[in-house]
Specification:
Elements: H1 2-10, H2 14-22, E1 27-30, H3 40-48, E2 56-63, E3 66-73, E4 77-78, H4 80-86, E5 92-94, H5 97-104, E6 122-125, E7 134-140, E8 143-147, H6 149-156, E9 159-161, E10 164-165
Parallel strand pairs: 3-6, 6-9
Antiparallel strand pairs: 1-8, 2-3, 2-5, 4-10, 7-8
Amino acid sequence: MAKKQKKAQSGGTPATVALTAAGTEFTVHAYEHDPASPSYGEEAAQALGVSPDRVFKTLVADVDGRLTVAVVPVAGSLDLKALAAAAGGKRATMADPAAAERTTGYVRGGISPLGQRKRLPTVLDASARTHATICVSAGRRGLEVELSPEDLATLTGAVFADIGRGPSSPAGV
């Protein structure tokens, strides 16, 4: 068993290894990442030909001193007050990028909600439930994984909440 996991890890990222180990159905999508792109998520949506409301970005925030993962559509933005409430806190701010990278084990622009070095509390925007599948980072720039929102929530221990603002969130409609 240990050999099988080691072999899988050599050909994937911690996110894809975690998905495989869990027996979860998923699809990996690779694209050529442009380092000059101003938005990793919008670049992914365009490169994959997927609507930006189905591609979700992984953001790390500090909720009352505790790092928390927020997964929201790239077409919108994160509502920090809503995230704080959903995570049972009072105040949320964006986490220091170095702390986010150190804690998750991923680099900015490639942070996946899956396979993180340290499992963090996770909140998934409720709009994800309107799609059969969504795309999230597979753990590096230029690599996305497509899976059902329910599977993502199960694997990360996420709760669903209205934490997004913008075109795909109820408040932005």
